[in-house]
From TrEMBL:
Species whose genome carries this gene: Paraglaciecola arctica BSs20135
Pfam families reported for this sequence: PIG-L
Protein name: LmbE family protein
Entry-linked InterPro entries: Class_I_gatase-like, GlcNAc_PI_deacetylase-related, LmbE-like_dom_sf
Domain of life according to the entry: Bacteria
Length: 808
């Protein structure tokens, strides 16, 4: 499959469900009493085709529990890594959930949490060495007790060859299924209004996830039933697989979402692992009623419940006539509130949610449309702002005593506006003046509903329809709240190479909403000097730059040091910046970053010629290489005319995926060019000058322990000794992984130089290959070198210098 041609890319962050489709979903879901919870480790792990079928075809209430934010994942669309890519993927997950549609729960709600995506893991034991298992279980049990699902299913199997974090969540889900019904488990929940809950059924996926990444050692369990995710859903004229790809296209950073036609669709099989009620036939829901009609039959025709069933059936026939639907919904609500639910906790939970659904439907078809607009989508703490609220009554009805309440992210009231009367077909406008909250936007919310867009501000509309109290959220354009003053270094990490210099200039950026002059200064390590000691400027919202000269002492050690920056005005002081993350397909997000610059002092020889560099989507280390004293010329094509100007080419991680034409590369190497390539995936337009195959599935061709042993296969290789000697310190202090996408086979032109050993004792020789190709060279490095350069790891400096300097 040609990924570039087949990829689906969203053009914006707006919901692709029309008003008519949303109304149909609301009406269709009223008769269904199925709540389905899926659990997964990461954003994009969700089984979207099954969740889309359950939500859109069956009308089920669907939710996804996601353990971590995806901080350890790659990024195919930008430079964000770590916390930043986690926030980007969180927003992508929120958008994908809205398009299923389904609710979303997170376990990770803290930047310094004990449950975080630390990178790839090969087994659950390794995962639980990094995760707080008790906290994960508590999060899962809390969600089960809040949501009260009939059916629970993890996304992945607990099988060797599968991601360790996936397996850990599956293990925890199986435990939580029973713990949620145990009155001795997490008793603090009961003081918070929750109660025990026994789900009816626990499922497992009955399909294999083996492929380009994973390599499951066992076949999947027996399939007990299938969801018909291959059938066409009439209102969309697509099957659930196609609809799923429309949701998955929002996982752009992970290159997901494909164009598929209706012929490309499969059923989705499940294995029944546990059931609370014995059922002779293994079916979805374990035989417990999945519709109000089935509940009415099982309760010997409760008159109010049966009346509610009849009215909802009429509503489905009345679709899409708003007036009829509103009248019928009001009648259904009255009947629903009179059903005796005390005899069955499951029915009680379902009917409580049916009331929520009916109230939402009544609000949406009441004819009152309210739109909110902000002065700006980027606000500073404590500044004055306003929200314009537009009211539009589209029906021949009257609304009195309309209220709009504005809250901050933590539900603290900011202001209120009232509209006493809105006549038939009238419009009105109100302005809500408020002071922006003193806390900046916090992105790690625990729960995102279909109505809660995880925004920095929330507006609630209160009014009545035929005597029924209505409360609903008003959609506010995504807004970011930043600190009063932003300060940051242009470069957050750099090398100081003593072979080149002992002092350097560093740039600090400042902006904010405070009036008047402020003083900007740096705090340097002991013995270091900074000139000027302080700089004064008149603060504005427009970013300004201040340059400082930083000098190391003559006796500086080859260690890591930290510079800090701050802004002072009187007794107030600021030392951080809100780092915004904004792409077309998501709502803007971001987080607060302390204004620091890490400095790694090294003493290494670097190449004295310019190096051509073809960067990959994940590369963000060019400024770090520049701080080493390496001159890089970024190129974006591999044509003879470009290559002839250089004798050395650095191809960054996944770099070949960014170009289409590579035919000129091999002749350039044969004539004496030297190419250094960092890790690539097999599908990244990989086209080496001689036989070199990247290992797949990648699970079997990576070492996830960043401190794993590195042995020299050719100790006297010039590449390991010139111009810098690479010793055991070279491999210390690495982050995340030792390497990935190792080569699994190569021709006689290549020689392996390193051996890397993982925690299981498996030895890999394909992490660093030297190839003599004609008069030139190809050096392929699958170690996670770029990641170390971004974090200015000491050994990475000498290593990259040797790769770019060495020539036979």
């Amino acid at each position: 499959m040609d990924n570039n041609k087949q990829r689906k890319k969203p053009t914006n962050s707006e919901l692709n469900l029309s008003a008519l489709e949303q109304l149909w979903l609301q009406t269709n879901s009223l008769s269904t009493t199925l709540t389905f919870l899926q659990t997964g480790a990461h954003p994009d792990d969700e089984t979207t085709r099954a969740l889309s079928y359950l939500s859109r075809k069956m009308g089920a209430r669907v939710a996804y529990f996601c353990a971590v934010r995806g901080e350890g994942g790659q990024n195919s669309i930008g430079k964000e890594k770590g916390t930043a890519i986690g926030l980007l993927r969180s927003r992508e997950m929120e958008q994908a959930a809205r398009h299923v549609p389904m609710e979303l729960y997170w376990s990770n709600t803290d930047f310094d949490t004990t449950i975080r995506d630390f990178g790839f893991s090969k087994n659950p034991e390794d995962t639980f060495q990094n995760w707080d298992k008790e906290k994960l279980l508590e999060s899962l049990v809390r969600v089960i007790r809040e949501l009260k699902p009939n059916v629970i299913s993890p996304t992945m199997l607990d099988i060797e060859g599968q991601h360790g974090q996936h397996r850990a969540v599956t293990q925890a889900t199986i435990e939580a299924y029973s713990l949620a019904a145990d009155s001795t488990a997490f008793p603090e929940h009961f003081k918070q209004g929750l109660s025990v809950w026994q789900a009816n059924q626990l499922l497992l996926p009955a399909w294999s996830a083996s492929g380009g990444t994973y390599d499951e050692a066992l076949p999947p369990p027996k399939a007990h039933f299938e969801l018909a995710t291959d059938i066409i859903l009439p209102i969309w004229q697509q099957n659930s697989y196609q609809l799923a790809e429309e949701s998955r296209q929002y996982h752009q950073s992970q290159q997901m979402g494909f164009q598929v036609d209706s012929q490309f669709g499969v059923k989705t099989p499940f294995h029944v692992l546990k059931e609370h009620y014995e059922n002779p036939l293994p079916v979805l829901g374990a035989g417990v009623p999945l519709s109000l009609n089935d509940w009415a039959k099982s309760l010997n025709m409760d008159i109010n419940l049966q009346s509610c069933v009849n009215i909802i059936q009429q509503m489905q026939s009345s679709f899409p006539e708003h007036q009829k639907l509103k009248e019928q919904a009001l009648k259904a609500l009255h009947c629903l509130r009179n059903v005796d639910t005390k005899t069955n906790v499951y029915l009680e939970a379902h009917l409580a949610f049916k009331e929520v659904q009916l109230l939402k439907l009544i609000a949406d078809i009441s004819g009152l449309f309210v739109e909110a607009k902000l002065e700006s989508n980027s606000l500073y703490c404590l500044e004055s702002s306003s929200l314009t609220v537009l009211f539009n009554n589209t029906q021949n009805s009257v609304f009195d005593n309309i209220q709009v309440h504005l809250y901050d992210q933590w539900n603290k009231p900011l202001t209120t506006v009232k509209l006493n009367h809105l006549g038939a077909f009238e419009e009105a406008q109100k302005n809500m003046h408020f002071t922006v909250p003193s806390r900046e936007f916090y992105p790690l919310q625990r729960y995102v509903s279909l109505q809660n867009e995880n925004n920095a501000l929330r507006a609630e509309l209160i009014y009545q329809v035929d005597g029924i109290d209505i409360k609903q959220n008003i959609s506010i354009p995504p807004v970011i709240i930043k600190p009063e003053v932003d300060i940051s270094f242009t470069l957050s990490a750099r090398y100081l190479n003593l072979k080149k210099e002992r002092s350097f200039e560093t740039e600090v950026k400042v902006s904010g909403n405070r009036k008047g002059h402020v003083a900007v200064s740096l705090q340097a390590p002991k013995g270091w000097t900074v000139t000027p000691s302080s700089a004064e400027l008149n603060l504005t919202k427009h970013e300004q730059t201040v340059m400082f000269k930083v000098s190391a002492p003559n006796d500086v050690n080859l260690n890591a040091y930290t510079l800090s920056a701050n802004v002072k005005q009187g007794k107030k002081q600021w030392n951080s910046k809100f780092q915004s993350i904004d792409y077309q397909h998501i709502y803007a997000t971001g987080y607060t970053v302390t204004a620091e610059q890490k400095i790694q002092v090294v003493d290494c020889v670097v190449p004295n010629k310019s190096v051509a560099c073809l960067t990959g989507a994940t590369d963000d280390y060019l400024l770090q290489l520049k701080s080493l004293g390496i001159t890089l010329d970024v190129i974006n094509e591999l044509t003879p005319n470009v290559l002839k100007s250089y004798d050395t080419l650095l191809v960054g991680s996944l770099g070949f995926a960014s170009v289409q034409e590579t035919e000129a590369l091999k002749p350039w190497i044969l004539q004496g060019g030297r190419m250094v390539s960092l890790y690539h995936r097999p599908h990244d337009n990989w086209n080496p000058p001689s036989h070199l195959v990247i290992g797949s599935p990648s699970f079997r061709w990576r070492v996830t322990q960043e401190d794993s042993p590195v042995n020299y296969l050719v100790p006297d290789s010039p590449l390991l000794n010139l111009p810098n000697v690479l010793d055991e310190k070279t491999w210390q202090g690495w982050h995340k992984d030792r390497g990935l996408y190792f080569a699994k086979e190569w021709g006689n032109d290549y020689n392996p130089l390193l051996e890397v050993i993982d925690a299981e004792g498996i030895r890999y020789n394909g992490s660093l290959l030297y190839g003599k190709i004609g008069n030139g060279e190809h050096i392929h490095c699958s170690l996670l070198l770029g990641y170390q350069l971004e974090r200015v790891v000491s050994g990475a400096a000498s290593f990259i210098a040797n790769l770019l300097t060495y020539k036979v």
